[in-house]
Amino acid sequence: MGGVPAIREVQFSIIQNRGCFGGCNFCAIQLHQGRRVTSRSADSIVAEAERMTHEPDFKGYIHDVGGPTANFRFPSCREQMLRGMCSGGKHCLAPTTCSHMIVDHSDYLKILRRVRELPGVKKCSSAAASGSTTPAPATVPVSWTETAPSSPSIP
Ligand code: SF4
User: What count of Cα atoms within 13 Å lies in the side-chain half-sphere of residue 120?
Assistant: First the structure.
């Protein structure tokens, strides 16, 4: 008796970001989390994963280190940090990918690798990555993490 049966689906998953600049018609995330992506620090995510490894039910599998917006960790472009999200019907992904958009998952991949290397973790995965169909621009810009101001973080 007791407990929350549905918790099993998410018990060993970690939220790494909030917000989405996708704006898909079937999804309400941007209405309640906003269109600007904010992310937890890598250290906070890894610390949560490490705590999970001590839970009695943990079998070595972290099912999702993820969140909305196909796991992007930063705002969609540098202009957005200066002027806010575009308005007037301009969208980051539709009808085509905006040329200002920064497509870079290097920071996210580093986090997945850090989590995977924790003692007790056999596998960690991303539930959203396999569903992403966002086309990348022809030229992938310099990594955001090398040049851009730090992203606002979820404490
Ligand atoms: S400039 Fe492009 S990528 Fe940046 S917020 Fe506007 S539509 Fe999105």
Answer: 14
d(CA 145, CA 120): 29
For the CA of 86, the nearest atom of ligand 1: 6
Q: Are 154 and 40 in contact (CB under 8 A)?
A: yes
Q: Which atom of ligand 1 is nearest to the CA of 98?
A: 2
Name residues of the chain where pLDDT drops below 70: 1, 128-155
Q: Are 148 and 78 in contact (CB under 8 A)?
A: yes
> Which residues are CB-neighbours of 39 under 8 A, at least 6 positions away?
16, 17, 18, 73, 74, 151, 153, 154
| CA 109/CA 55 separation, integer angstroms | 25
Residue 65: which H helix or E strand, with range? Answer: strand 64-66
**pLDDT computed for residue 129 by the predictor:** 54
Interval 95-109: pLDDT, tens? 899 999 999 999 999
pTM (global) more than 0.70: yes
Nearest of 82, 84, 77 to residue 34 by alpha carbon: 84
Distance from the alpha carbon of residue 65 to the mean position of ligand 1, in angstroms:
26
Distance 142 CA to ligand 1 centre (A): 17
